[in-house]
Each structure stands twice: as C-alpha cells, then as structure tokens.
Amino acid sequence: MTRTDPPRIAVLGAGPIGLEAALYARKLSLPVTVYERGRVGEHLLRWGHVRLFSPFGMNSTPLGRAAIHAEQPALTFPAEQDCITGKQHQVGYLDPLAKTALIRDCLRLETQVVQVGRRGFLKSEGAGDPRRAQQPFRLLVREKGKERIEEADVVIDCTGTYGQHRWLGEGGIPAVGELAAEPGISYGLDDVLGDKKATYAGKCVLVVGGGYSAATSVCNLSTLAQQHADTWIIWLARCAGTQPLRRLGNDPLRERDRLAVRANNLATRAEGNVEFHAQTVVEAVETFGPDKGFRVTARCAGKARTWEADRILANVGYTPDSQLYRELLIHECYASLGPMNLAAALAKQAGADCLTLTAQGPASLKNPEPNFFILGAKSYGRNPQFLLRTGFEQVRDVFTLITGKANLDLYKS
Predict the structure, then answer these.
(1) Is residue 254 a contact partner of residue 51, using CB atoms and an 8 Å limit?
(2) Which end of the chain is more exposed for a tag (fewer CB within 10 A), N or C?
(3) Each residue of 360-383: pLDDT tens digit?
(4) 27-48 in b/e burial notation, b at 16+ Cβ within 10 A?
(5) Sheet of 280-287, strands arranged across
(6) How far is CA 393 from the centre of its chain?
(7) Quick check: helix, strand or coil at residue 116?
(8) Pairing mode, strands 111-118 and 137-143
(9) Which tens digits make up the pLDDT trace of 288-318?
(10) Cα–Cα distance, 91 to 87 (Å, whole number)
(11) Which residue has better confidence, 361 or 89?
C-alpha cells in the first residue's frame, strides 16, 4: 500500500482467524475494528460440544498466548497435544484473547456488516484503475436494528462458512419440498447428547452426509440409542463403498482416525441402531408440520426408497456467502467458490491431506479488488481441508501485503 497514514483495517468476524488478524494489526500499531454479528467465536460455539481433530498447539499461536499471559499470567493453557472441544477452546483461549487490552476495545459484537462496496465505484467500474484502490471501502453496518455507513481502507473477511448450509438434493440444489421443510431440518452439528438430547431421544433420525460431520452425528446418536433404545438412525450417503469414511494409514490426527473407525463400524456391522445406505441421493422431502416428522424419498443404488423420520440432520456441508462482496471485484473459483488465486494454488495439491497443506503465500491472497482479503475457512470455499494453523499463516502473509514489508513474521519475534 502507498499511504502515509496507517490504513484503517476492518476485520469481519470474531472467530479464531478474525481475532488473530486483529491481534496482528494491534501489534503492528495499525488501527483495526472487528465486526461480529454474534458472539466471539459464534460458529465455534454452535458446534462447541465436538472435539477438534487437531491439537491445541496447532490451534493457537505464540502471539496469542503471549498476549493472554501478559494480562493473566496464572492462566494455564491446555497441553500442546491435547485435542479439546470447541467450547473448551473458546473458554481456554478465544475468550481470554478477546478480553485482552489489545483486542477488547476494537471489538464490535452483535454488529453485522451487511455489505461492502467501494466509494465512487460500482462493481462494473474501474477494474485495474489505480484510482479505485485510492477510495475507501463503504461498509453497511447494522447494530441493534439500526444501520449506518462506516469506512475502511482494508477489509479482511474472516466470516467463515458454517452459517451458510448446502442442500440435500442431487446436484447440490434443494430437494423437492426442502425449501418448505427447511425450518424443521437441522443443518448443523446438534449436541444430541447435551442440550438437544430431548429432541432426539427415542426418535427415528435420518442423517444425510458422507463426511466427518455426519459421522459425528451418527456416532453420538448411536450413543444416545444405548440410553434410549427406541432411538433409530438411518444414515444416507452418496459414497459408493460400504465404509463412508476413508482412513489414512498411521493418521497423526488420532481423533480423526478414532471417529472414522467407529463410524465405519456402525455403517458396516448394523450395530448401534444404525442402518447405513450408500449410493443414495435425496429426491424429495415432505414435512408433516412442526415436530410432526417427515417423509423422505430417495434413490438408493438406483432404486426408489421412502423413509419416514421424526428428525432430519442434514450434514451436507457449508458454502461461502458471497453476498457480502457482490459489489466488489472478487474472482471466485467456479468449483470451490473460494477466491481464485488461492483455489488455483490448492488445486495443484488436490487429494492431499490437510496436514500437508500450508498457506500458499501472500500472492495467493490477492483479489482483483485491491486491499480486500478473504482468510480462514471462507478462503477455502467448499474445500474442507482448512486448518486453523493455515489461517494463522494467512494472517502473517496478509500483513506482509498490507505493510509492504517482506518476510513480516511476528510469530518469530
């Protein structure tokens, strides 16, 4: 950037990557405001009962731990190799970080950035024109039902994807009737052994999805069935094999492997009140009314099948919400919906495990829109391989771009 005044930075989202970006900015004495439409770590709290695959040492930074210990020297962090739940991470790291003097004054909670534009330019105007970069961003901000405009010179979008679910139907579109049934379907990771126990105990639950989220739901529901024998789980997945999850040999992420083993056993052994159906796509959903159940029609190995269920857990993944920057020059990947430069770099390592992927360097974070950056899970779009460790590396790289200083790395200072 070619400014004499420090750039005003707006960080969207107060999750792990948003807080890290704000901390990095403050350590560099840059003005920053963090806008969060909910609570600190809002998405993390929604699935907070789930244990993370990656250990605490990969999900925190020396910069963050030092900032916390500077004000709370007696606080004990989890061990580097501990795999803790989302809520434990929130309590033990994110909340203390958000309460540090470096962060708390720049936090704007319960404050939504509805959309971002560029002063004086429409989306169709000024592509490649250096004058576009000289104009500030305009942020439409909504707080307590009232709207206002604020400005920033740099915007870092760390809003994630968990708040934007995908659909049940074949081809990624809603199944017939799904839009009408949507209010009664759960698309997240419900705590079926905790605060949602009464919702699922003794019920017939249809789980759709072939990934780790669906496996988590199925395993937890099977545990619930041990306590409530009338609980029954119908698991539908698109995969062709009898085992829904692929295991990695000598998987260093022990929690991931443990989940895969248990879920595959439930799918293949017809145990735990679980019936698994591979090669299945949902065609229609009929709702009988609030809390009155559903009828689901699907094609299973080419044959029509119908099930009636009390609940539906649609663990079919999440997708980035691009409405936020519809008026900006963002080149999206046609496959992942992540920013194109990063998506192209990741495509060169297609099929690689998340542990072998690292940040792809500062250039991969650039968009055609000057000084607008997408970090964190949203930067991967529909690619599920994102790790918090990678997001922290992205933070380091983006501030290399913002400051114009090569090899800027506060993690080594």
Answers:
(1) no
(2) C
(3) 889 999 999 999 999 999 999 999
(4) ebebebbbbbbbbbbbbbbbbb
(5) 280-287, 294-300, 303-309
(6) 17
(7) strand
(8) antiparallel
(9) 999 999 999 999 999 999 999 999 999 999 9
(10) 6
(11) 89
